[in-house]
């Protein structure tokens, strides 16, 4: 190439996918991998019900399903979403307040890339990697964050949020992920109202990632952005990857609130829309499917069945992990992740787990050098020693050492066995070199 045209790297990588390469190497050496790294229910063996497949079969038999959709999305689908939102009685929208994207990941990328380079969004720490990577790519500086506190059930530190918002004038918006990935935390209405009040006080807009909004259990209640936003400008991010679940559809959307109340917010949304126009539209077939699937009488039952399963696994994981020395864990009440945190100074770069296969041992020792994050080192040893593939917590931009597992295993007994193995390996690893 004529000159080095690649944009400068920011040093951040997507560990959820990176670890797949390492696991792949182990698989070549005959290790059976238990994939606990990615939030894809289908990859973990969840079944799509027949009635849903029948709806899609009907759609693919209609030639009109193969066309481009309008830039913001199919009219009928947006009308359906408007009605669902407005029925809640909170902030009201029209179909012009909805924009469809090719997966919520695409909507996230656009949300940050349409911002002025010196405008920042403050985000939870730890945070879901796609938000973090998109924000850092946009600004070329480390992110601003507010801590989710593992010693307080993962509740956000609102004092830190307000302090940072007050002193960092480049912050124009607050990101909330509810229910949260990777912590599984579900916000109560009061906490959400306090965040809205901070946004109002400092003239900020809100981005609420609500992709897990229908996956809440253990009797926990929350509110949606529409319920608490009042007249503050904001974006709710939603999608079907986790809910149907249909991650391969690449279909997510934005609900936009109070565009008419803030000209600057409106200009920002126009910038997003202009990018979208250049791309023509988003995938049509999943959009057509949304109202048909969501209004089907089986849908509620389908969601309830899934929630019951996650609730069961959440309780199994919590009850087994809560008594493990050296770590702390909180009960997950929404989404399908559990994050385990090692107590401070428990980990070092000498601890190991036994690995029988010599070439795997050699391979692993080649990748866990002294610069390796301590939790990543644990995760790699766990993988090589047991085949269980989890994600280090530090890859979600936090200094907390730990790891994230999913609640997606369809086989309850297998899940229990995996968690029991992890609990044993935590102690074995920590005590291998104190
Ligand atoms: N937002 C959150 C909080 C997620 O956990 C995920 C996927 O894991 C996404 C967005 C991305 O969803 P999509 O598959 O629609 O790109």
Short descriptors:
434 residues; alpha/beta; eight-stranded mixed β-sheet; four-stranded antiparallel β-sheet; 14 strands; binds pyridoxal-5'-phosphate
Structure description:
The chain is α/β, with parallel strands linked by helices and 434 residues long. The chain has 14 helices and 14 strands. Helix 2 packs across helix 10 and helix 11 runs parallel beside helix 14. The longest helix has 24 residues. The N and C termini lie far apart (51 Å). The mean pLDDT is 94. The protein binds pyridoxal-5'-phosphate.
Helix-strand layout with pairing:
Layout: H1 15-28, E1 34-35, H2 50-60, H3 75-86, E2 98-101, H4 104-113, E3 120-125, H5 129-139, E4 144-149, E5 155-156, H6 158-167, E6 171-177, H7 189-201, E7 205-209, H8 225-228, E8 234-239, E9 252-257, H9 263-278, H10 284-294, H11 298-321, E10 327-329, E11 337-342, H12 358-367, H13 374-386, E12 388-389, E13 391-392, E14 402-406, H14 412-431
Helix pairs in contact: 2-10, 3-10, 4-5, 11-14
The chain binds pyridoxal-5'-phosphate.
Pyridoxal-5'-phosphate binds at residues 39, 103-105, 128, 130, 177, 181, 209, 211, 239, 241, 247, 252.
């Amino acid at each position: 190439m004529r000159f080095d045209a690649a944009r400068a790297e920011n040093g951040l990588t997507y560990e959820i996918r990176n670890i797949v390469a390492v696991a792949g190497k182990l698989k070549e050496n005959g290790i059976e991998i238990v994939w606990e790294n990615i939030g894809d229910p289908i990859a973990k063996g969840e079944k799509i019900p027949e009635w849903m497949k029948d709806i899609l079969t009907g759609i693919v038999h209609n030639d009109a399903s193969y066309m481009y959709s309008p830039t913001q999305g199919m009219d009928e689908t947006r009308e359906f979403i408007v009605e669902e939102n407005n029925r809640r009685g909170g902030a009201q929208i029209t179909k012009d307040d909805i924009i469809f994207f090719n997966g919520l990941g695409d909507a996230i990328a656009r949300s940050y890339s349409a911002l002025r380079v010196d405008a920042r969004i403050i985000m939870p720490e730890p945070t879901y990697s796609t938000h973090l990577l998109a924000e850092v790519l946009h600004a070329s500086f480390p992110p601003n964050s507010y801590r989710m506190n593992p010693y307080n059930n993962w509740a956000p530190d609102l004092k830190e949020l307000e302090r940072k918002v007050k002193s960092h004038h480049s912050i124009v918006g607050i990101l909330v992920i509810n229910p949260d990935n990777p912590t599984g935390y579900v916000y109560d209405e009061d906490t959400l109202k306090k965040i809205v009040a901070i946004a109002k006080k400092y003239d900020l807009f809100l981005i609420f990632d609500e992709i897990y909004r229908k996956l809440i259990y253990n009797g926990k209640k929350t509110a949606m952005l529409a319920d608490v936003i009042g007249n503050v400008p904001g974006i709710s991010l939603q999608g079907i990857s986790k809910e149907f679940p249909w991650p391969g559809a690449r279909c997510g959307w934005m609900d936009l609130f109070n565009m008419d109340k803030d000209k600057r917010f409106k200009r920002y949304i126009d910038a997003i829309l202009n990018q979208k126009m250049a791309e023509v539209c988003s995938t049509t077939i999943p959009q057509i499917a949304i109202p048909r699937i969501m209004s089907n009488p089986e849908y509620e039952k389908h969601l309830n069945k899934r929630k019951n399963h996650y609730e069961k696994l959440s309780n199994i994981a919590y009850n087994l992990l809560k008594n493990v020395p050296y770590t702390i864990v909180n009960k997950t009440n929404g989404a399908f992740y559990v994050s385990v945190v090692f107590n401070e100074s428990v980990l070092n770069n000498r601890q190991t787990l036994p690995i029988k296969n010599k070439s795997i041992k050699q391979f692993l020792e080649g990748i866990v050098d002294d610069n390796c994050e301590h939790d990543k080192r644990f995760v790699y040893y766990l993988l090589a020693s047991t085949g269980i593939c989890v994600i280090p917590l530090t890859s979600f931009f936090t200094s907390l050492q730990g790891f994230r597992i999913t609640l997606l295993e369809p086989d309850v007994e297998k899940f229990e066995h995996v968690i029991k193995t992890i609990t044993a390996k935590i102690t074995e690893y920590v005590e291998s070199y104190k």
